Amino acid sequence: MLWIPIFILTLLVTTEGIVKSWDHSPISGSSPLKTKRRDNHIVRYQRDINNGRNKIAERAIQGRGVESLPIDTYQTQIVENNHKYYSSRVLGPTELQGHDLLVDLLQEEPKKATVLAILSKAHKQALRVKLSFDFPFYGHPLKHITIATGGFIFMGDVLHSMLTATQYVAPLMANFNPKYSNESTIRYKDNGTCVVVQWDKVRLHERENAGNFTFLAALFKDGHIVFGYKEIPLQVQSISPEQHPVKSGLSDAFVVVDPFLNDSESQRRYIYEYHRVQVDLDKIKSQTVVEFTPLPTCLQYTTCDQCLTFTSSLNCSWCHVLQRCSSGIDRYRQDWITYGCEKEAQSTSCEDYIDFYTAADSTIQTSSPEMDSTPNPFMDTTTEDDTKTKHQGDGE
């Protein structure tokens, strides 16, 4: 497994009116000129995000239209919200009657479910698993996921010591410690069209008397994501985030190489979070489901005509060099910059490319949303904790 120095920054992720600012802290060893050039580079990223983001009013599940619902009446309401990349809805017990969304992995073909013994007896650990199908996450086809004891799935391909920060699918991210009970298990099942990960009877670290938590995340081949909560013994808002983040939702980011570093520092990379869907913790209760439906993205279009005729707040553009439709804000961001796609994006007609490019264009090497640093074993362990910096387990 490839491990590299990582700096995680946030690209103005707006949730309930809160704007995350950029981290402009200086990097040791950089000259004032490098720092200034880097800051200018970051400002350009920020401007790119704003140009696309200001044209849509994103609402998280805890946004307007949800606050007016009394907590005690949530079970008779279906709360729906539209986001930039996903639409979501929350279903209570009444709506789940006869509904197939809440899948109990223990009851449905238990012999076919894989118990992750390493995680079931560990604390703050994660395990990398290969999928039998490509799962589209924010439009990116993923072949691997990393399951963590802390109630979430890390969706990134570059492992680092801050897995809880971004690039996650989190039904309930918290400081769970399966070591407390022999009943606690973390297991998954991949049937070729859906992967279900279930945290069963897990307990909170240093709060084991609070009771057992049982919940799951289901990833469907078509991009749908479902969170199912079977047993939530207390109000999630009462869980302390002091030792571990407490949150629920989706997040994605892209990785770029710092262009202003010397060759000896070429492995230093930055992770920029560009989008987040945050579930209101008030809505996480027993016998409740949160469903995320993927919305069309630029990446799904493979021709210039399709790309430029796609009407969306994502502001899709066609890059002829890469033969790719993109907003420039996705996991292929590094390619978008390297091959000058930002300049090409100024074209508004596919005919504009005919005068500048011929059929003799050579094939170019591009990056993949999943790097070629796939571990040799089928599974690979790593740490999930924000506070630990040393890799743990037998992985590379």
Radius of gyration from CA coordinates:
22 Å
End-to-end separation: 4 Å
Give the rounded overall mean pLDDT.
Answer: 73
Can you tell me the residue ranges where pLDDT is under 50 for at least 5 consecutive residues? 1-7, 10-79, 355-363, 371-380, 386-396
Number of DSSP helices? 6
H and E string: EEEHEEHEHEEEEEEEEEEEHEEHHE
Biggest sheet descriptor? 8 strands, mixed
Oligomer status: single chain
Alpha-beta content class: mainly beta
Lateral strand order in the biggest sheet: 1-16-15-10-9-8-7-20
Strand content: 25-35%
CA-based shape = elongated
Number of strands: 20
Whole-number total of structural domains: 2
Instruction: Please estimate the helix content.
Output: 10-25%
Region (Disordered): 365-396
Family: Belongs to the plexin family.
Biased composition (Polar residues): 365-376
Signal peptide: 1-17
Word description of this protein:
This protein is mainly beta and 396 residues long. It folds into 2 domains: 222 residues, no CATH class; 72 residues. It contains 6 helices and 20 strands. Strands 1-16-15-10-9-8-7-20 form an 8-stranded mixed sheet, with no helix packed on it. An 8-stranded antiparallel sheet has the order 4-5-17-14-13-12-11-6. It has a two-stranded antiparallel ribbon with strand order 2-3. Strand 8 and strand 9 form a beta hairpin. It is elongated, with a radius of gyration of 22 Å. The protein starts with 5 loop residues before the first strand and ends in a 13-residue tail after the last strand.
